[in-house]
Design a protein that fits this description.
Elements (H helix, E strand, L loop, with lengths): L5 H27 L13 H4 L2 H22 L2 H20 L4 H20 L6 H16 L31 H19 L9 H20 L7 H20 L3 H16 L2 E5 L6 H18 L3 H13 L5 H23 L4 H8 L1 H4 L12 H6 L6 E4 L2 E5 L2 H28 L1
Antiparallel strand pairs: 1-3, 2-3
Length: 424
């Protein structure tokens, strides 16, 4: 039996590794760029462009446009340029003094470009698309685990006159260099000879319009000083807009967008690992792998979303159930839901997987619904402490709204499937 050549091996496994690394780096860069005092700023535009919502939306828009352009041009060399340019934008604060306000936007642009390059070789490659999506989603939802190996540098926007308070790169330069070589190299090898693709303008529209709409909702209805009614209104509009735009897409593409919406809702509860994490992280990894295997062999997206709803509702329970749900049930649900819905169009997987950080009404705005959080600038919500993990849960109203969002996504997926079957 003839052994595969190095080029064949790169074409087979390279996109998976590149997509996973690209997704992790992009999501980590966005999450790490968070400005610590964003909730205190009231300086017009500046108070918007330093928020996690702006960072996530900017990265999502750049990624959507980048994916469309790269697949229009159809050449791996352009993807390599995107990867290098994105990495340079992320790493620039290492070489040039840049303030926290400027770094948020610059870093987000770099993350979006890097993500577009990583997504480029994943067309029709189920394993690579799963790696890309889970790299983005798990890094966003489990970003708290980063505290186990690094001491985060504070990022402040409010400084003394004349003090710009420069910030470091969100991702270490040596990691960016290695990731760029991998992502750029795989893109040039895997797709250099393929013809340009036709771009679905509906996907580009969704990838651009939704993040911008979410940002507008954050500014008008979901800011740190928001009321419960305003926040619920913002959530309702965001969910309705997402479902409406997803409904216009081909069935498989729309289904994955709805999965992304459900995953963004489960971020209403955030997990951090303590020093006694010995069994928690391996258990979560095993549950994630199990979900992927099951979803690969027997797609069951609605079961995956049902488990997401269970995880979200656990925020109303005690410490032990909440901890177990986020360590075991959540990764199982993520693996099952994502693997069950792929492959799809490249624009769909990139736009759907970025929703957890492009829609921060659940992960950020919900934490300020508590009166103490609005007054002091941080959440005083209940901490579910048990063993190796700490789960920060929002108020019951936010938990119920997030659960309702997941139910809406499940219903829309079911209705879209029934509608497609009837048309067929």
């Amino acid at each position: 039996m003839q052994q595969p050549s190095s080029v064949q091996i790169a074409q087979l496994y390279g996109p998976v590794a590149s997509a996973l690394v690209g997704g992790v780096v992009a999501a980590y860069a966005v999450a790490e760029s968070r400005v610590d005092d964003f909730s205190f700023s009231d300086d017009g535009v500046t108070s918007v462009v330093i928020t996690p919502q702006w960072a996530g939306a900017t990265a999502a828009v750049v990624a959507a446009v980048g994916v469309a352009l790269l697949h229009r041009w159809g050449r791996g060399g352009f993807a390599s340029v995107f990867a290098a340019a994105g990495a340079l934008a992320i790493a620039l604060p290492t070489f040039v003094s840049i303030s926290a306000q400027m770094s948020v936007t610059l870093n987000a642009i770099g993350a979006g470009a890097f993500l577009a390059a990583a997504a480029f070789p994943t067309k029709g490659h189920r394993g690579a698309q799963i790696a890309l999506a889970l790299g983005l989603i798990t890094t966003t939802l489990y970003f708290g685990a980063a505290d186990l190996w690094r001491d985060r540098v504070a990022r402040w926007s409010l400084t003394l006159p004349g003090d710009t308070y420069p910030v470091p790169s969100t991702v270490p330069v040596w990691i960016l260099l290695a990731a760029t070589l991998l992502v750029g190299g795989v893109a040039s090898v895997a797709r250099s000879e393929q013809a340009p693709d036709d771009v679905d303008t509906r996907l580009v529209t969704l990838g651009v319009v939704l993040p911008l709409a979410f940002t507008a909702l954050h500014v008008w209805l979901g800011s740190p000083s928001t009321s419960h009614g305003s926040w619920l209104t913002a959530v309702g509009i965001a969910v309705a807009a997402t479902v409406a735009l997803a409904w216009r897409l081909p069935p498989h593409d729309g289904r994955f967008i709805l999965v992304g919406l459900a995953v963004s809702a489960v971020s209403v509860g955030t997990i951090r690992f303590s020093s006694d994490w010995t069994w928690a992280i391996p258990a979560s990894a095993a549950a994630l792998a199990l979900g992927v295997v099951v979803g690969w062999k027997r797609p069951m997206p609605q079961l995956g979303l049902g488990l997401l709803a269970v995880t979200t509702l656990s925020g109303l329970l005690g410490a032990a159930p909440t901890m177990v749900a986020h360590i075991l049930v959540l990764p199982l649900a993520l693996g099952l839901a994502v693997a069950s819905c792929l492959p799809v169009a490249v624009g769909a997987v990139s736009s759907g997987a970025v929703l957890p950080f492009a829609l921060t009404l659940f992960s950020v705005s919900a934490t300020f619904l508590d009166p103490a959080a609005q007054e002091f600038g941080w959440s005083s919500g209940p901490l579910a402490e048990h063993g190796p993990a700490t789960v920060n849960t929002s108020i019951p109203l936010a938990v119920l709204a997030a659960t309702a969002t997941i139910v809406v996504a499940m219903t829309a997926i079911h209705q879209k499937r029934v509608r497609t079957a009837v048309v067929t």
